[in-house]
Structures are given as C-alpha cells and as structure tokens.
Amino acid sequence: MDIERINLYERLRDFKVPTTVLDNIFAEEKDYQVLLEAFNTFTNEGYKEDYAAEEISKIIFKELDIEPDYSIDEEK
What we know:
The chain is mostly helical.
C-alpha cells in the first residue's frame, strides 16, 4: 500500500476535488507523478501539506473549469 499516494488523494478530497477527477489522475502514472511533484515542491519550500493540497485543488478546478461542491459540508 502506498501511504503517500493515499495521503495525497485524501488531502485533495478534503479540498473538494471530485473523486472522479482524482481517480482519473491517479489511474495514469504520468499524471500522478506530475501531481506528486507539485505537492512535493510546495512542501519542500516549507509550506504545510494542507496549503499545498489547497493550492493544487485550486489549480485543478481552474484547469478543468469546475466548481468545488460545498454541499457535502452542508449535509453534515
């Protein structure tokens, strides 16, 4: 089991990236490596993992021209 992979997936889910988007990214090793490199760049520069995940999620939303689904929070 790849803990690093699961950690990144869950952190991005915390910032409302849809599972279908993440499943597509994580299914392609090349795409996952790009995502991991971006995440590691943020953390290596001293940013916290949550900040890195939040910034990456913003990029994903912008690139895919989608909006985060905040209704999940409202149901709790």
